[in-house]
Amino acid sequence: MERVQIPEVILSSGNYKMPVIGMGTAGYPLSPPHHLTTILIDAIQAGYRHFDTASAYGTEEPVGRAVAEALDRGLIKSRDQIFITSKLRCSDSHHDLVLPAIHLTLRRLGLDYVDLYLIHLPVRMKEGIEGFEFTKEDLLPFDIKGTWEAMEECHRLGLAKSIGVSNFGSKKLTQLLQHATIPPAVNQVEMNVAWQQQKLREFCSSRGIHVSAWSPLAANGAIWGSLAVMESPILKNIAAANGKNVAQVALRWIYEQGVSVIVKSFNHERMKENLQIFDWKLTQDELFQIQQIPQRRGFTGEVFVHSEGPYKTLEDFWDDDA
Q1: Structure confidence by residue, pLDDT tens digits, 147-179
Q2: Main-chain dihedrals φ then ψ at residue 211, nearest 5 degrees
Q3: What is the pTM of this model?
Q4: Which of 163, 158, 22 is nearest to 87 (CA)?
Q5: Catalytic-role residue among 48, 57, 255, 311
Q6: Using one digit for the tens of pLDDT, what is the confidence trace for 166-218?
Q7: In a 3-state reduction of DSSP, which class is residue 22?
Q8: Are 85 and 16 in contact (CB under 8 A)?
C-alpha cells in the first residue's frame, strides 16, 4: 500500500506538530480488540500517523498494541513518529482523579506519554461510571478550574506533550482561560459541512486554540447522526466536477478551514481515499456553495441536560455557540 504524507499543524504548546488527519477509534458496537489492532496496522501502512482514542472508548489497549507491532515490524522507526490522542473519562473529571486516570491510560497504551490529552466533555459524573451508560442523577457540577490544574500537571510531568479540551463552547473556554497557566492547545468538536461551527472557530482562532473536527461526515451511526453530509446534493455536484467522492470533498473543506480532522473508516479502500485530499483545491464558488448547506448539530447533547443538573438547557451546555 502506498503511503501518503500527511501535513502537520504546529500546536501552541510549543514546536510540537500534529498530523492534520487522525484515525478515530470510537465505535458501537466495539470492534474486537485484535481486529481493531489489525485495522490500525493497515492505517499506519497507508500513512496515518495520528490515532485518536479515549478511556471511554475502550480502545486504548488495541491502539497501544498497534504501535508496538508497527515498531516491531519496522513500519515506524520510533515512538515519536506516531501521535496519540486520548481523553479523560467524565467520571475522572475531578482534580484528584486526573493523574490516576492518565497513568491508567498510559498503562493501557503501553506508552510513557500521550501526545495530546483532552478533557472529553465539560461534564463530571459520579465515580465508577464507565462508557456512556449513565442516568441524569449521575451528573455532578463540573469544576473547570480544578480539573484544568490537574491537566496542566500532566503536561508538566511529561505525561502529556500537549493538553486540550473536547466539546467546549466559547463561554467555558473563556472561564478556563481565566485560570489557565497553560492554555488548551486543541478543542476537538463536532464539525462538518452541515455543522460548520463558524462562531466557535473564530473564537478559538483568536485565542490560539487549534480546532479539530470529529464527526466530519456527520457520523450516520446506530445511535445518532444523519445523512446531511453524505447525501448533500451540493457535495455530490462538487465531487462529480472534481472527480472525487463526497467524503473527500467534505474532508477537503474542513482542511481548507485550517481545521484538523478525525476520520473513522475501517474499510480498507475508504481508509486510503480519506487521505486523498491534499493535491487539489475547492474553488471560491464551491466554497460559497458549501456555505449555503443547512446547519444542524448532529449530537444534541440532550443526555447532559437535566432540570436538577448542572446544565438545565441545551444553551447552557453548548454556550449558545450555534
Answers
A1: 999 999 999 999 999 999 999 999 999 999 999
A2: -100, 135
A3: 0.95
A4: 163
A5: 57
A6: 999 999 999 999 999 999 999 999 999 999 999 999 999 999 999 999 999 99
A7: strand
A8: no
